[in-house]
Each structure stands twice: as structure tokens, then as C-alpha cells.
Design goal:
Length: about 650
């Protein structure tokens, strides 16, 4: 902990010195950092030790944390010397230690992400790299050569130094080239280590390595972009674009290492790499287009014309969006093949839904195919019941399911839940991309499932009402049969007994008694007719028996072809009354010579057909018997169709859903 405190103190003091002295130019030292670029310099110097300190506080034994914490200190420590040393020594230190900006990223690349080298043989690589870096620093500090450019007028403080002169006389200056090549080799070795780990690693370690690889790749990409920009836009880009970008890459490397070690949002790296490749390629293409237009129009209208710049800028602005979409498509097809193919499947499915060739509820199978997970299952959120249901509307219990669960949202509203292979959690880019592309179809399917469940509930409610009405009619029929009808029968019997016990000489009353008994009998027959209209007792033996009884009492020949299978009592009653009304309507209005009644059960549906050879012309009118038939059938969730051409008879076809 003592070393940690010392390192933290060194970082804090160095940061304070950099901020105060750099910002305010204390002591009147030369302004080597423009004020506009100071934030980039401060971030570049402070980001690595800050991230290293945060990692070290949580993981004191983490080698990467100590590399980042101590690696930038040589630069930070030498910065204040610019304010106390002569201008010559300041330039000499700048010339010697600038490569140390890249020393700590290379060191991190050797041991990232587990703190160990790729193999024991890499110790030789590290030894050679350290030797070259230290040797370069030593030779550069003793270099007696004059400064270049704007600093050529500043004398080198080592120009008359005996040691430097002896080195130059002996001919050791060639060592500088060797050390420089060694530093360059250590840079390539770090890149090779990252690529090697990227190919060998899997899962979390691969994602961690990708973060560092992405940040390291920004350096050559940035150099190429800035070089191209300088060639197209002028040398001012070097000072105000290249230098800040190189400093920003220091921050990017530090932040990437921090994210990778902390394992914070690791899966975002796939999306970030994708965007980096897209925009880097887009920048090169647009710069090339700008340069081509500028050169081409410059030949025609003359170089330096404002019209050339305006036309080139307009062309680049107009090409930005379509060109970006095209490059994005090419990058996705090449580097995110699984996601690209999955999203293509989803788009094809949406086109088929739009054309009416597929149902939105099939999106679950499409998502499973796009993810390459045959066991994936999509469940839809039902806000009313606060439960999940599958595509068929069945409520699903999630407590016993061991698959990974990913909630799906659209416009911050929960729409569905995907049950899938836990391995897909390591491919977040693929998972999020497919679910994002399918969000609209999932919402459509959810709404359809929700509406279907609501309609099913309405249908079930209507069925319960019909069943309740049917049971009430049965109760009324029993009450009429066992109550009023039996009392009338008893009254008739009592009247007959009274008639038989009349004394002699009262025979004149017999006709009166006969009339009363006949009225009672008529009342009984009317009551039976009413009870039969409520529900015929013959239905207790089934629909076939009731229809055959109906045929026997009809005034015209009736052929009955009815199944003996039993269905729900309410369905049998509805079919019977449909046949009764249709037969009555045919006899009354159609004058048929024969009628055929057919009732069969097919695929969970009772099919009833009543046909005659009458005059035809039957239509459904408001308040008519046929309208009542249709209402009765619709109440049971069925359909009624009438085929009745004039002069060709009538056929009534009825379908009623039934249950055993």
C-alpha cells in the first residue's frame, strides 16, 4: 500500500504541475503548448495514471494497473523542467523523451489482459525492447546535433560537450539507428501480441482484447486520415488535427484498458469497431472525392477558385448519407455476417407479412433461425394480465425454464421476452441487432395475440351466457312438466272421478263435465307445446332422435341423415330449433314435396343442412324467422348461409362449433 500511496501522490503532484504551469505559463517560460490544445495534452498525460490508479485501488496486484500508473511519469516529471531549464535543454529533453508517450501502451500490449506474457520466450522480446528504449533515451540526450526548423537558432547545450564529441568522433552515432529500429520493432511486437491473443482468446477475454485492439488501431488509422487530410486540406491540419488526435489516442487506449479490466459494457466493442471501420472508410472516400473534384474542376476553371471549393463541399455533403449506408452495408456483410444475414431474414419476413403471405406471429421462429438457436422461444407481454403468452395465446410459467431471458422493449415499453441459449449473452451485438430489427414485427404479433385473447374471452363469455340461458330453459321446462302440467292432469282426473260419482238424475251435467275435461286436456296440450318450444324432452336422447321425431310429425316427407355422436347440449338444442324453424318456414312459404335434414360432425364443428324442393326465394328479413335463426346460430359462434334461387328450392347451411 505504501507504493500505491507514493504513486498516487506522484500522479496528483504531476497533474497539479501540468495544469497550473501549462495553463498559466508560470515564470514566463516559452509557450510550447497553445492554449487551445492544452486540454488534449492534459487528458493525454493524466488519463493513463488516473485509470491505472482506479484499477490499482481495486486490484493492487494487477500488473497492468502499475504499468499505466508509472508509465507516463517520465513525461510528467520532465514537463516542469521546461520552466526551470534553458530553452536548449528543454528542446533536448523533448527530442529524447517523446517516444515514451507510446512506451506504456506497448508494455500493456505485452501482458494484456491477464498480466502475463504470451509465453516465457517473450521475456527476450521484453528485454530487447527495454534495452532499445533506454539506449535511445541515452543517445538522444547526448546528441550534439543542432535543432531543426523554427528551433534551429537555439544552440544545442551539448554542442561543446566532451562526452558527446567523443561519441561522435568514435562513430557511435550509428547506434541511434539501431535503437530506433528496436523501438519500432517493439511496437510491431506489441501489435503482434494483440493479434495473437485476439485469435487465441474466446468469450470475455476476447472482448477485453478487442477493446485494446480497437484503441491501438486508432493510431495508424488516425495517421493515415490526418496525412490524407493534410494533403487535401493543407499543412494546418498537422498542428490542429494530427497532434490532438495522437493525444486523444492516448486517452482512448487508457479508457479501453479501464473498460476491459473492469468488464464494463464489454459487448459494446463490436458496435464501436463496426462504426470505426465505417466512418474511417467513409472519411477516406469523401476525402478522395473532394480531392478529385477539386483537381478536376481546378483544371477547368483554375485552381484557387471559390466555386471549386463550393462544388466539392456540396458534392461531399450530398454523398454522405447514401455513401454511409452503402459502406455500412458492406462492412456488416463482411465483418458481421451472422448479424447481417439475421437482419436480412427479418426484413424478408416483414415483406412477406406486408404481402399477406405470412402471419406476424411467426416472428418467433424467424428470430430463432436468425440467431441460430433452435430452442429460442418468443413470449409476448400482456399488460392486462401482467403475464407472458406464446404465439397461440397460452400463458407461460417462467419459473421452471432454465433458458436465458432477454426482455424486449420498444419505445421504452415492454413488448416481449426471448428465451434463448445462454451462450448468446456473449454475442450481444448479434442478439441486440436481431431483436432491434424485429422490434416492429414483435409488437405487431403481440397486439394480435392480445386481441385474439380478448376475442376468446368475449367468445367464452358469450358461450357462458348461452349456456346459462339454455340451463334456464331446461329448468323452466322441468317446472312446467313437473308443476303446472301435473296439476292440470290431476285436475282432469278429479273431474272424471266427480263425473263418475254423480247421482242418478244428474246425467244432464255429463256434457258439461266432458267439456271441462276437454278444455283441461287442451290446456295440457298447449302447455306441452310451450314446454316443447323451450326444450324438447326428446333431446335427452340426442339430436338424431329429436330430429327423427320432428320428421314424423311434419306434414311433408322429411328425410333425416343425422349423426349419433353427442355434442354439447346447448349446441344440440340450437341445431334442433334451427331445423324446426327451417322446416316450418319451408312448409309455410315454399310448398315443398319433400325436405331433407342432414346433421354431421366434422373437425370440431356441427354441420346442419336443411334443403327442400319448394319455390325458393327465401331471404333474411328483419324480424323474420330466418333472422331469428341467424341470431341463434351467431350466439353460438356459428354461421348461417341461405342458398335460395327463385324456382329452385332452398338450402340452409349452418355451422356451429361444438365440444364433446
Amino acid at each position: 500500500m505504501r507504493g500505491l500511496r507514493i504513486a498516487a501522490w506522484a500522479v496528483a503532484v504531476s497533474a497539479y504541475v501540468v495544469i497550473v504551469l501549462g495553463a498559466f505559463d508560470v515564470g514566463g517560460a516559452r509557450g510550447w503548448i497553445p492554449l487551445a490544445l492544452f486540454p488534449f495534452v492534459a487528458l493525454a498525460f493524466l488519463a493513463p495514471p488516473t485509470v491505472g490508479l482506479l484499477i490499482a485501488l481495486r486490484q493492487p496486484r494487477n500488473e497492468i494497473a502499475w504499468i499505466m500508473l508509472l508509465g507516463p511519469l517520465p513525461i510528467l516529471v520532465t514537463i516542469p523542467l521546461a520552466f526551470v531549464l534553458s530553452e536548449g535543454w528543454t528542446l533536448q529533453i523533448d527530442r529524447a523523451n517523446w517516444p515514451f508517450l507510446y512506451a506504456w501502451p506497448i508494455a500493456v500490449a505485452y501482458v494484456f489482459p491477464n498480466g502475463h506474457l504470451l509465453s516465457p520466450r517473450w521475456r527476450w522480446v521484453v528485454g530487447v525492447a527495454v534495452t532499445c528504449w533506454v539506449g535511445f533515451l541515452t543517445v538522444a540526450m547526448l546528441d550534439p546535433e543542432p535543432f531543426y526548423g523554427d528551433d534551429a537558432s537555439v544552440p544545442n547545450p551539448l554542442a561543446d560537450n566532451a562526452v558527446a564529441g567523443w561519441i561522435e568522433d568514435v562513430g557511435f552515432s550509428w547506434i541511434w539507428v539501431v535503437f530506433w529500429l528496436g523501438i519500432l520493432g517493439s511496437l510491431f511486437a506489441g501489435a503482434f501480441a494483440i493479434v495473437r491473443r485476439l485469435r487465441r482468446s474466446t468469450g470475455i477475454e476476447r472482448l477485453q482484447t478487442m477493446w485494446l485492439a480497437w484503441a491501438a488501431a486508432l493510431i495508424p488509422i488516425g495517421l493515415l486520415m490526418c496525412g490524407a487530410s493534410s494533403w487535401v486540406l493543407g499543412d494546418s491540419v498537422i498542428d490542429w488535427v494530427l497532434f490532438p488526435f495522437l493525444l486523444a489516442t492516448q486517452v482512448a487506449v487508457a479508457v479501453s484498458v479501464g473498460i476491459a479490466v473492469a468488464r464494463y459494457r464489454l459487448y459494446d466493442i463490436e458496435r464501436i469497431v463496426n462504426r470505426t471501420v465505417v466512418y474511417a472508410a467513409l472519411t477516406f472516400v469523401l476525402l478522395g472525392a473532394y480531392a478529385g473534384i477539386t483537381v478536376g474542376f481546378g483544371v477547368v476553371v483554375g485552381s484557387g477558385s471559390a466555386w471549386v471549393t463550393a462544388v466539392a463541399t456540396l458534392a461531399v455533403a450530398l454523398a454522405f448519407r447514401p455513401l454511409r449506408a452503402r459502406i455500412q452495408d458492406l462492412v456488416d456483410r463482411r465483418y458481421r455476417r451472422a448479424r447481417y444475414e439475421g437482419e436480412r431474414r427479418v426484413r424478408t419476413f416483414e415483406d412477406e407479412v406486408r404481402d399477406g403471405r405470412r402471419a406476424p406471429e411467426e416472428i418467433g421462429a424467424v428470430v430463432a433461425e436468425a440467431l441460430g438457436d433452435p430452442l429460442a422461444e418468443l413470449l409476448f407481454w400482456l399488460p392486462e394480465t401482467e403475464a407472458y403468452a406464446d404465439a397461440s395465446g397460452e400463458i407461460v410459467d417462467l419459473l421452471t425454464d432454465a433458458r436465458a431471458q432477454t426482455e424486449i422493449h420498444r419505445d421504452d415499453a415492454r413488448t416481449a421476452l426471448l428465451l434463448h441459449d445462454p451462450a448468446l449473452l456473449e454475442r450481444r451485438d448479434l442478439l441486440n441487432g436481431i431483436l432491434g430489427a424485429a422490434a416492429l414485427s414483435i409488437e405487431m404479433a403481440r397486439l394480435r395475440v392480445e386481441v385474439r385473447l380478448q376475442l376468446a374471452e368475449v367468445e367464452a363469455s358469450r358461450t357462458r351466457i348461452v349456456e346459462a340461458g339454455y340451463e334456464e330453459r331446461r329448468r323452466l321446462e322441468r317446472d312446467l312438466h313437473d308443476g303446472a302440467q301435473q296439476r292440470l292432469v290431476s285436475l282432469g282426473v278429479q273431474l272424471r272421478r266427480m263425473q263418475m260419482t254423480l247421482p242418478r238424475g244428474t246425467e244432464v251435467l255429463s256434457p258439461a263435465f266432458d267439456g271441462i275435461v276437454d278444455e283441461v286436456g287442451a290446456a295440457i296440450r298447449d302447455l306441452r307445446q310451450i314446454a316443447s318450444g323451450v326444450r324438447p324432452a326428446r333431446l335427452d336422447d340426442g339430436l338424431s332422435a329429436a330430429l327423427r321425431d320432428l320428421a314424423r310429425s311434419a306434414p311433408v316427407p322429411v328425410h333425416v341423415d343425422a349423426t349419433g355422436d353427442r355434442v354439447a347440449a346447448s349446441v344440440e338444442a340450437a341445431a334442433y330449433f334451427v331445423a324446426c324453424e327451417a322446416l316450418t318456414n319451408a312448409v309455410k312459404h315454399g310448398s315443398p314435396s319433400k325436405v331433407a335434414v342432414r346433421a354431421v360432425r366434422e373437425n370440431g364443428t356441427l354441420l346442419v343442412s336443411i334443403s327442400d324442393d319448394g319455390v325458393g326465394g327465401a331471404v333474411v328479413r328483419r324480424g323474420s324467422g330466418l333472422a331469428g335463426l341467424r341470431d341463434r346460430v351467431v350466439a353460438h359462434g356459428g354461421t348461417l348461409e341461405i342458398v335460395s334461387p327463385h324456382g329452385g328450392g332452398t338450402r340452409i347451411e349452418v355451422t356451429i362449433p361444438c365440444e364433446s
